[in-house]
Amino acid sequence: VTNSNVAVGEVLDVLSVTKTAVSNIYGANDTVTYIISIINTGNVPFTGLTVTDNLGAYAFDTSTLVPLVYTDGSIKYYTNGVLQPTPTVTSVGDLAISGITVPANGNATLVYEASTNEFAPLVTGSTITNNVTVSGCGINPITDNETISVISAPNLSITKSISPTPVND
Predict the structure, then answer these.
(1) What is the pLDDT of residues 107-145, one digit of tens each?
(2) Neighbours of 8 (CB within 10 A)
(3) Residue 38: closest CA among 16, 13, 12, 20
(4) What is d(CA 144, CA 133) in angstroms, rounded to the nearest whole number?
(5) Kind of pairing, strands 76-79 and 107-116?
(6) DSSP output for the chain
(7) Residue 52 near residue 144 (C-beta atoms within 8 A)
(8) What is the mean pLDDT of residues 101-112?
(9) What is the number of other CB atoms lying within 10 angstroms of the CB of residue 40?
(10) pTM for the full model?
(11) Does 11 have pLDDT greater than 60?
């Protein structure tokens, strides 16, 4: 006779994050809108979370280049679909947003804009992969990323002039 108290199961995280770009393409001097959704399937709210976005940072030679710049004041914060007061942006190099609360069995959504700068790769086939991390409140950090691609259409302009310049009488 053998007695056992071993149970087999799968431990599921109660907090998850997804990051989505409203448009999956970008161009020179373009604006990209991101949506971060944090879902809590547990019975306890998470308060004091920090959301960090690396704004597409990538290694280049011995330095790190950041192809996106947070558009100051563009952030909107919702819990269960209800607009909340603007959260605190504590850093803009790596965008850091603090004071996020995700209610029990609910969600929090952050919507903000970032614009491309001179470090955004524009060669055909280029992409920007933007990573987000949710941390704090004693949880293991959770991450997600979103990749957008450069517009493959050419960026052309035409200038017309006359030569030689007409001469007046």
Answers:
(1) 999 999 999 999 999 999 999 999 999 999 889 999 999
(2) 4
(3) 16
(4) 7
(5) antiparallel
(6) -------------SEEEEEEESSSEE-TT-EEEEEEEEEE-SSS-EEEEEEEE-TT-EEETTEEE--EEE-TT--EEEETTEE-PPPEEEETTTEEEEEEEE-TT-EEEEEEEEEE-TTS--STT-EEEEEEEEE-TTPPPEEEEEEEEE--S---------SSPP---
(7) no
(8) 97
(9) 20
(10) 0.81
(11) no
Say which residue the tokens 């199961």 belong to: 9
The percent of residues above 70 in pLDDT, for the chain, comes to 86
Question: Is 37 buried (19+), middle (13-18) or exposed (0-12) by CB count in 10 A?
Answer: middle
The one-letter amino acid code at 38 reads: I
